[in-house]
Amino acid sequence: MADCCSPGAGTRAHSGSGKSLPLRAIADRPIPGTSAQSARPSKEASDVVIPAGTFAMGDPFNEGYDDDGESPVHEVFVAQFRISAATVTNEEFAEFVNATGHRTESEIFGTSAVFHLAVKAETQDILNRVNNVPWWLNVRGADWSHPAGPLSSWSEIPDHPVTHVSHNDALAYCEWAGRRLPTEAEWEYAARGGLAGHRYPWGNDLHNDAPGQDAHNCNIWQGEFPSRNTINDGYLTTAPAKSFHPNGYGLYQTSGNVWEWCSDWFLPKYYKTCLTQGTVENPKGPSIGRGRVMRGGSYLCHDSYCNRYRLAARSSNTPDSASGNLGFRTVAL
Ligand SMILES: [Ca+2]
Ligand SMILES: [Ca+2]
Predict the structure, then answer these.
(1) Rounded distance from Cα 240 to ligand 2 centre (Å)
(2) How many CB atoms lie within 10 A of CB 111?
(3) Which residues, 6+ apart, have CB-to-CB distance to 222 below 8 Å?
(4) Dihedral sign for Cα atoms in the order 192, 83, 185, 173
(5) Residue 221 Cα, ligand 2 centroid: separation in angstroms?
C-alpha cells in the first residue's frame, strides 16, 4: 500500500512496465545470509532495558487516519525486554554484509525508491516515478550501500540508519545478530519512554518554545511537501541514528528520521476486533495481514500531509518492500 511517506508495496520490485513482480515468488525464496556463517559481536552495550509494565496503547487524541486503526486505546502489559537505543546504522549493517555476504532484496531487484530531492544518480538510472507518490523515484542501483543512488555511498554516512532494507533483510540481520524485531506493542511502549498518553516521546507539543532550547525534537519535514524543505531541523533526509534528545528510556528517534519495521503483521482492525478484553499481555499481532507493521514516521512526515510521526501512528508495507526512509531497530532474545 502507498501512504503519505512510503512508496508502497513492492515498489522496488516494480519492473520497467510499472508492474510488480509476484510477491509470492519473493516470499517463497530463502532469505540469503541466514546460515549463521559468522556470529556478530554482542551489541548489548547499546541496549536499553525497558521495565515490565502496563500502558495505554493507541491514539487518545483521535487524530489518526481511520484506515490505520489506531483506536480504540487499550491496555497492554509488556514483559521486560532490552531494545537498541537507536536504529541499525549503515556501519552495523556493513558488518553484517561483510560477515555473511547477504544480498538485500533491493540489490537482487536492482532498484529501490529514493526521495526525488535526494537522488544521486545518472539520468539513465532514474527509471520512473512511483504511481500516486511521484516524489519517489525508482533508481537503478539504489540500495543500502548506495542510499541516494549509485553516485552515493553508505560510507559517507556510516552513523545514519541503514535504509533500503526489506522486512526480510531485517530478519536476516536479526538472525545473524542473535536478535529479533520488536513487536508493535513493545515498540510503542518503548517509544513512549515512560510518558503516559502523550502524542510524542517528549510530550504533546511538536516544538520547544522555551528560549535557548532547540526548537526541534525530531527529524521530519519543514516547508511545503514535497517540493520545498526549509531543513530547519538540519536534515533533508536521514539524520545520524543517535541525534536529537533520546526519550525517557534512552531511545533515539522513535518519532521521525526513518520508519521502523516491527515483527507484527498489520491489520487495521486488529485493535478493534482482537484486543477488546481487559489487559492484553505481550500481543504479537494478528496471524496474517496485508503487510508488516512500520512505526514512527520518517523525515518525510509533515503535518499538512502525514502526521504519522506521532507515537500511536501505524503503517505497513509488504515484507519485500524497501525505500530510503525505512529501517529497523532490534531487541535482545
Ligand atoms: Ca528534516
Ligand atoms: Ca524512527
Answers:
(1) 11
(2) 27
(3) 229, 230, 231, 232, 233, 302
(4) positive
(5) 13
Ligand nearest to the CA of 295: 2
Whole-number Cα distances in Å, 195 to 18, 136, 192, 207: 44, 35, 6, 17
Please report which ligand is nearest the Cα atom of 220: 1
Work out the widest C-alpha separation in the chain, in whole angstroms. 57
User: How many Cα atoms sit within 13 Å of 232 on the Cβ side?
Assistant: 12
Spatial contact of 299 and 256, defined as CB atoms under 8 Å apart: yes
The pLDDT tens digits for 212-234 are 778 899 999 999 999 999 999 99
Expressed in angstroms and rounded, the spacing between residue 123 Cα and the centre of ligand 2 is 30
In contact, 237 and 324? CB cutoff 8 Å:
yes
Minimum-distance ligand to the CA of 253? 2
Question: Could you name the CATH architecture of 48-332?
Answer: Alpha-Beta Complex (3.90)
Q: Kindly report, residue by residue over 239-279, the tens digit of the pLDDT.
A: 999 999 999 999 999 999 999 999 999 999 999 987 777 89
CA of 155 to the centre of ligand 1 (A): 21
